[in-house]
Amino acid sequence: MSAKDRRAIKQTTAAEAQGKYSRRREMEDHRIFKSWCQLNQIYYLRSREDKAVTIQVGHPDFSLFHKGLTLFIEFKRPGEVLSKKQEERQEWLTREHFDYLVCYSAEEAIKGAKRFFAI
Q1: How far is 94 from 81, CA to CA, in rounded Å?
Q2: What total of structural domains would you count in the chain?
Q3: Cβ atoms 89, 10 nearer than 8 A
Q4: Backbone angles phi, psi at 43, to 5 degrees
Q5: Which end of the chain has fewer CB atoms within 10 angstroms, the N or the C?
Q6: The dihedral formed by the CA atoms of 60, 66, 67 and 69, expressed in degrees to the nearest 10
Q7: Is residue 92 part of a domain?
């Protein structure tokens, strides 16, 4: 079946379905992590996901500020890697002595933030 025919009947390929699931799962991890930050009174900045990016491309998903400390967290799905722009941003932030985590689940991000902020 051609791609055009598949789109007409709203049928996706396995790769398209996996990509859609992966994006939904990452959004759910963001929601869980955001709720955890709010519960623990950790101030965070996060770009909206329903609009075009309004911050520099490559900036991590979360910028956290707590008790005078700053932590940046980028969420990725298992098997995914940072884009070139994300790698450049990670290198710049770590060169400037900021802490930067790449996390593959909300649970991993929460554990990393707890350890970093000594919560």
Answers
A1: 18
A2: 1
A3: no
A4: -75, 135
A5: N
A6: -10
A7: yes
Residue indicated by tokens 């519960």: 39
- Specify the residue for token string 């959004």: 27
CATH number (domain holding residue 94): 3.40.1350.10
Task: Kindly state whether residue 104 falls inside one of the protein's structural domains.
Answer: yes
**Range list of β-strands (E), 1-119:** 43-46, 62-66, 69-75, 99-103
In a domain, residue 98? The reply is yes
Give the helix ranges, DSSP H, for 1-54.
Answer: 3-8, 14-39
Kindly report the pTM of this predicted structure.
Answer: 0.82
CA neighbor of 92 nearest in space, from 59, 115, 65 = 59
In a domain, 77, yes or no: yes
pLDDT, tens digit only, all 119 positions of the chain:
777 776 777 777 877 766 676 778 888 999 999 999 999 999 999 977 777 777 888 999 999 999 999 999 999 998 899 999 999 999 999 999 999 999 999 999 999 999 999 99
> Helices 106-117 and 14-39 meet at what angle, rounded to 10?
30
The confidence score (pLDDT) of residue 14 equals 75
